[in-house]
Amino acid sequence: xxxxxxxxxxxxxxxxxxxxxxxxxxxxxxxxxxxxxxxxxxxxxxxxxxxxxxxxxxxxxxxxxxxxxxxxxxxxxxxxxxxxxxxxxxxxxxxxxxxxxxxxxxxxxxxxxxxxxxxxxxxxxxxxxxxxxxxxxxxxxxxxxxxxxxxxxxxxxxxxxxxxxxxxxxxxxxxxxxxxxxxxxxxxxxxxxxxxxxxxxxxxxxxxxxxxxxxxxxxxxxxxxxxxxxxxxxxxxxxxxxxxxxxxxxxxxxxxxxxxxxxxxxxxxxxxxxxxxxxxxxxxxxxxxxxxxxxxxxxxxxxxxxxxxxxxxxxxxxxxxxxxxxxxxxxxxxxxxxxxxxxxxxxxxxxxxxxxxxxxxxxxxxxxxxxxxxx
Length: 375
Prior knowledge:
Number of strands: 15
Order of helices and strands: HEEEEEEHHEHHHHEHHHEEEHEHEEHE
Distance between the termini: 35 Å
Radius of gyration: 26 Å
Number of helices: 13
């Protein structure tokens, strides 16, 4: 039997075997997560997902990709993954995983105790109080120091006074495109980065053309001084309104790293407008808060997304996410529930010599418990 045929046989056999173990359900998917040690006692995590006739198996370290197949069709690498699987490595993985399943069937409690005891912290996910991380790394980036402690206190005071809960502080009765661009100019000037040139002599409209996403859905074309045209444009009634753009993206970035200054109708009302800033990514929060203060100090109504979370971040009352070493940082905070208040993440190994200091404060997510059906 050649290597490809042997690998195909082992994958099919492993997926058949895992059916005799308890699984979790996500929508219509049946999911098994299998932590297992290899012959050198290095730990790995494998995931099997089945949906009707579709089967897939993944190396969760992200190093060896995965395989998928429909019913009895050919087994192929999962194309959407970055890494292309190595057949020899997968054969060794599957041999080790099959051996582990035998131990689990023999005594699933003892096997899972070993997982709890030996599974490396570098491969686990958890949360640590931001304050503890800050105390361990006093020279690390601090949002409150980045914007200035006085400004940080002003924002904290605004949140604690429930400023953003009052309509007169966040809403306007009428609005125009030119008033929107005036907001933009204040924002651009207040949050100018060292690598940017923001010409204060330019109009807000021209600065918007320079820094915004570019897909304005017709906002630049409507009469800038007409409240009626802006209302029609917001309500998708204006003939110049197009769709599919990002008119509120006033500073370009990725899907999670841009800054928006959005205008929308209040919930359950067809009159008035809410003006709201949002830039929750770590790399954009400093700029967003500087924009917020400048607009507020100009005497203009403004709202910010999740003001209570902003306060937590400034006071280090949020959490830092600890992610497995094989997980990329991009969007990694989305692996955590919203109520866990995770906006920044790090790998466990980054704690370095402070591991002993910080580890007692980490709340780890539970490891999967592998259990045979009937066990």
